[in-house]
Amino acid sequence: MKKLLILTSLIASNLSINAQSLSKSGYASVNGIKMYYQVYGEGKPLVLIHGGGSTIETSFGRIIPMLSMHRKVIALELQAHGRTSDRNSDLSFEQDADDVVGLLQQLKINNADFFGFSNGGTTALHIAIRYPKVVNKIVLGSALSKRNGVPAQFWEFMKQANLDNMPQELKDAYVKVAPDPSGLQIMHDRDAKRMVNFKDIPDEQIKAIKAPALIIIGDKDVIILEHALEMRRMLPGSELAIIPGVHGEYIEEITTLKSNSQQAGFVIQMIEKFLDNAR
């Protein structure tokens, strides 16, 4: 088993360096913003939605090579994040959902699977609620649907959030790719305000989602296990995977790399099996 994990890690590392088959990238004018996207590989479309304060690379850079071996992967950056411009309005998960679907319409993609991580998972829920015909299956990585899905101290922390305590890896990644690095403060403040004002998604809306869902969470995640179990019960036909590790470690999100996790290869195989199984 140990040899298998080491081999998987070596393969994933090699892929991340050598095999990112980027076939297209650019900007699309979507609902008043210039939205950046990348397309990798060929096959059934899989849309990747990053976490708060993140870029394509920080959330998914380590797993895009694996996913794009068998899929057409569409990775994007949301309002004020990374290379995508801001609009003169606060962030909302509903607006992000509209923006993602607007981009897909321009790319002439009528139906897709979605993998959202953290805030991106919450956005994926809103896409499934607002645009059910667009969604085939959804993978919800550490997604939050209710305020009680995180410890009470999380909300106190968010009220005190400032740029100084934002993870340095995320700050560096933003500055590296953003057309205007001074937008970092705007992105941070918009993200923090959205979380402070987070509103529960009503149970009836979650229960109405018809798309099969795979819920993934770390056993030391910021999202509490009971919340993941509650979503599992409310989403008909859903599956739940609890993986050892912290928030995002199972996909080797950039702030978790020091842990030297070797789980991404296994988790991607699990995701692919879920997506490929007949509905």
Automatic annotation (TrEMBL):
Keywords: Signal. GO terms for molecular function: serine hydrolase activity. InterPro entries: AB_hydrolase_1 (IPR000073), AB_hydrolase_fold (IPR029058). Residues 44-162 form the AB hydrolase-1 domain. The lineage of its organism: Bacteria, Pseudomonadati, Bacteroidota, Sphingobacteriia, Sphingobacteriales. The keyword Signal applies. PANTHER family: VALACYCLOVIR HYDROLASE. This is Pimeloyl-ACP methyl ester carboxylesterase. It comes from Pedobacter insulae. Residues 1-19 form the signal peptide.
